[in-house]
């Protein structure tokens, strides 16, 4: 940990005092090179806190507002936004890849050198400057640690079920990978009325623990995609309508595809390596109309879906707080990543102030 300089917010930007940040596999992907990241950078993209100051032109939030942070502030003007696909905004992703904010510049520096932002948020810190559109107000009774996870993992999984796949009551679901995103997909499918819901993981214990989130059956990875796909077919009574893959591994993607029944779809959430390729039996695609689709951020609109998710949590329909297995101070961030890599945490959350750790 080092101290870095943080410039004040510019036009349509907001200074946030962070209270919690989730530790996500996407951050690990930046560390190990799975996802190319401009460095040096302050990582972290699941955050929640309190607005401390706003830049010129900000109208959506004010000092004192409690907010969860979205890493995808859609521009509203590009082709994808005009096609009503703001989660695929063509302006946001180049800005992320450049390591700046939406104007292409950074607010972070260290010893006179630029330090870059991660996913426009950089939440592994006490303070951050973010785009106004990244700030989503949250109710006063929602804990910051839950709100932080809504910023990425929870929305990615829940909305993959609600928005991307549009799971309907009585449809069959399988979820491959029982980490934070996968368990969120289980919760989203359960809230939508899916049954059965088959949880799949390399650890049978983790797959069985998904019952706490709404899963009705558990399958352990059987060593290869074909055998595992067949096991899910058996456990679901002949195949599923929606198979959510949340690991980013091509073998898990193939198993998800092989687990679906006619007219079923494999919904790929996980982020694979840049050189990864997916091989599936081509004949099964036209024969039975099986499909493979992607899910980015669960096809969510954060300004709409954060509130709907948190409302469902407050009414007991989504047990979001059960995802948090570890709460650690920022000083123990290496321990948090150790838990992530070893599979020893459902989700670790960093408490970013003494009052939060208490």
What features would you describe in this structure?
This protein is an alpha/beta fold and 358 residues long. Helix content is 29%, strand content 23%. It is built from 12 helices and 17 strands. It has helices spanning 25-32, 79-82, 92-98, 144-150, 153-164, 180-191, 204-209, 225-235, 250-258, 302-314, 333-342, 354-357, and strands at residues 5-6, 13-22, 41-42, 47-54, 66-69, 108-110, 113-117, 127-131, 135-137, 173-176, 197-201, 217-220, 240-245, 260-268, 291-294, 326-329, 348-351. The two termini are 21 Å apart.
CATH architecture level-2 label of the largest domain: Alpha-Beta Complex
Helix content range: 25-40%
Mean pLDDT score: 95
Q: Sketch the topology as an H/E string, one letter per element.
A: EEHEEEHHEEEEHHEHEHEHEHEEHEHEH
CATH superfamily of the largest domain: Medium-chain alcohol dehydrogenases, catalytic domain
Q: In terms of structural class, how would the helical and strand content be classed?
A: alpha/beta
Instruction: Tell me how many strands there are.
Output: 17
Percentage of residues in strands: 15-25%
**What's the alpha carbon Rg, rounded to whole Å?**
20 Å
As for the number of domains, it is: 2
Largest sheet: 7 strands, mixed
The number of helices is: 12
Cα distance, first to last residue? 21 Å
Topology-level CATH name of the largest domain: Quinone Oxidoreductase, Chain A, domain 1
CATH class bucket of the largest domain: Alpha Beta
Low-confidence stretches: none
Taken from the alpha-carbon principal axes, the silhouette is globular
